[in-house]
Each structure stands twice: as structure tokens, then as C-alpha cells.
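Quick start: what a row looks like.
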Amino acid sequence: MRRLPRGTALFEAIVLNELPLDTLVLELASSRNAIYQTVFDVRPKLRAALAANGYMDEELMNCWSPLDDFLRTDPRDVGCAQAMNMLHIYAQLTAVGAPAEQRYPGVAAHLRACGPCGEDFEGLLAAVRGEAH
């Protein structure tokens, strides 16, 4: 795999230029998770820079709610690497109806925010349950 561009370049490609994530995966010979992790890591920095330059006022962000949603991070979100380390346990707990979200709120927050990790979770959960996809 090639070295990924800086997070701001990926952010620009995905959010501003609406380049599909799968297109970036092919162009960069990377993975969805690697690209998402890079963008995930840069979101708080981008949000802080936009706020410092007056671009995060309420009126402006009402017009850009998708951008605001993208930049907003749940402080409990553990990130891709830790979520992936716990995914098998989280899926097993979910499959048996145990309170996985309560036990692992950081993983739950991440799965809500990260499309690729959420897809991995759904696939693993289906496998654990013995469901055909």
C-alpha cells in the first residue's frame, strides 16, 4: 500500500469533492479503514482550525449540517484500531442480546460514526448469528 495523503487532502476529496470512498481505495491502493482512520484522526484538528478562523458559527453550520456532522466526534469514540480489536467480543455480546453498548460505549460510538467499521460489524454479527448475506 502507498502512503496515504494527509488527512486534509482526504477530507477535501471525500467531503468537499464528494469523491466516493471506494474510488479513493482503488486510486490509492489502500483500504476503506485506513482512509477512514486518517480522516477520523484529522477531524478534531479541522474543526479547531475552522472554529479559530470563524467558520464554525451556528448560522453558517446550519447551512452545512453534513459538514458539522462529519466534523463532530463523540469523545467516547475509541477509533478504528481499538474498535477492531474489540469487534469480535462486541458482536458476540450483541448476538446474544447482552448490553454491548453499555459495556463498550466507545466501541458503540465508533460504530455509529465509522461506515467501514460499522459494515465490518454488521458482517461479523451476521456470521456469528449464522445468517447468510
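That is the whole record. The mean pLDDT is 81. Residues 54 and 60 are 10 Å apart (CA to CA).
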